[in-house]
Amino acid sequence: MAFKTRKPYLEAMVDLAPFQSPRPDEYAPMPKPLKRRDLKGLNIPDGPRSPLLTLRFQKDTPAFLINAKAEYGDCSSFFLAGQLFITAFSPEMVNEVTVSKQGSFIKGVGFDRMRKVLGSGLLTNEEPIHLRHRRLMQSPFHISKISTYAQTMLGLTRKHISNWRDGQVVAIGPEMMSLTFDIVADILFGTDISADTKRVQDSMHIAIDRIERTMLPGLDRLDNLPIPYFRKFEKAANELHDVATRIVNERIASGVKRDDLMGVLLEAQTVDGEKLSAREISDETLTLILSGHETTANVLTWIFSYLSQNPKYWDGLAKEADEVFAREGDEDFARVILAAPLSGAIFSEVLRLAPPVWISPRRALEDVTLGGREIPKGAH
């Protein structure tokens, strides 16, 4: 696959923030959405139909989807803002959408909203840019690097909980938010960014709320209107962009090379000498802050919640932790952690019960079959 040639060096950036940036030209063209009038002769799956359906979806999206699965099975259809949506619940269909037939889809409405905050990072990118970024970002996630990160995480966690006392009541949600942010800051930037902590956390909270609540087709038209709810969305996105841009530009201007994740991204290059641009590193920085901070803190909070209801597992976890930490200095420490059976089982079960990312919209680029059902081009 050929890519456009880019400069093999980095420059400080002065460009449009992601919130107002257009969809990259390199992406596949967006297919025309399917309306009811377009479905003549098409065999779409059954599903809920109601004049109030969009309001029900907006009020409680998880409950809406759970009810759709319970009543119509692994594949159902419905209309939001007049456009056709089709659910894919079965493991087979999810694998086809995200792996075996991923070339038949582009990322959907939620990702369009997310791109306004995170720019074109790995989470939001489409091909062919996504493949280029993934190749350039492989080295920071080699197992030897992850072992180093794991030791850093362990040290910061010990420091964070050193002031906890037996019998003390701890607000786990905020504590996990604070801990994961400190970990992301250290591993990503190798420096203290505590001055930006509240700014980033508040802006990320607003941005995630708006992404989840305004993903319906057509709501993006309200982004530039003087409506406080939507203006706060843009303000939060721009705040995050400003912080990431400043940190990246300061690092580039300093000329200092560090062995943190940003340092690895700045030095990463293809065999042809191609590197990520400063803007691309800023976008990947925001993506890593989101994935390593908010979502991780949410999972950890749910783990503590479920363990509080199942205290019988604490002794086994403590024993397993002693065995794992005894190998803290091993070169493959990350493998030891990932192979811990009880911890792994608990994490997997909590991810099943309370996934931090529980919906992943796509758009069909062509007619495609999922789980034996025909999905027409343009369907969400």
Automatic annotation (TrEMBL):
Pfam families: p450
Keyword match Oxidoreductase: yes
GO molecular function annotation: heme binding; iron ion binding; monooxygenase activity; oxidoreductase activity, acting on paired donors, with incorporation or reduction of molecular oxygen
Keyword Protease in record: no
Membrane-spanning segments: none
InterPro entries: Cyt_P450, Cyt_P450_E_grp-IV, Cyt_P450_sf, Cytochrome_P450_Monoox
Organism: Actinobacteria bacterium BACL2 MAG-120802-bin41
Protein name in the entry: Cytochrome
Keywords: Heme, Iron, Metal-binding, Monooxygenase, Oxidoreductase
Family indicated by similarity: Belongs to the cytochrome P450 family.
